[in-house]
What we know:
180 residues, mainly alpha, two-stranded antiparallel ribbon, 2 strands, membrane, transmembrane helix, Yif1_fam, golgi apparatus
Amino acid sequence: QDWQVQFQDTPVAPRFDVNAPDLYIPAMAFITYILVTGLALGTQNKFSPDSLGLQASSALAWLLLEVLAQLLALYLGAGPTSLAPADLLAFAGYKYVGMILALVSGLLFGRAGYLAVLSWCSLTIFIFMIRSLRLKLLAEPAAEAVGVRGPRNQLRMYLTMGMAGAQPLLMYGLTQHLLT
Length: 180
């Protein structure tokens, strides 16, 4: 219910605040995604070390491209924010948890199970990203008593919606070809 990160001059470390973004869950989810990808390819007799390496490098490239695009958009449009590149990497990496669940359900229940779980996980990551990024992007203007309806704040909200809306698209794009 309380989505705000605790502050004491600087943001509190993740071990002291459950809402602080950290890289542990995204890193473990990325590795698990690669392993589940290998399992999915193995069930279709398409597994090879080269294909597993290709999936890993492709997923990493999309992740880095996403974070770089977010950094560029924030730099050009939103002005100074408290979002660090590590925070954006953590937020972008949370989608791998939903991708793992969707792939496992696709392996167990077929295409219908995959689509149902992917839809649910896409909705939850969309809501999570909007709530989390909105607090980060609009915290500075609220602290400076700048009006919420200003053009810069509207641009920040559009950026928040764009970042959140990209997550379901990337989730689908990185998983749909694995379940044929």
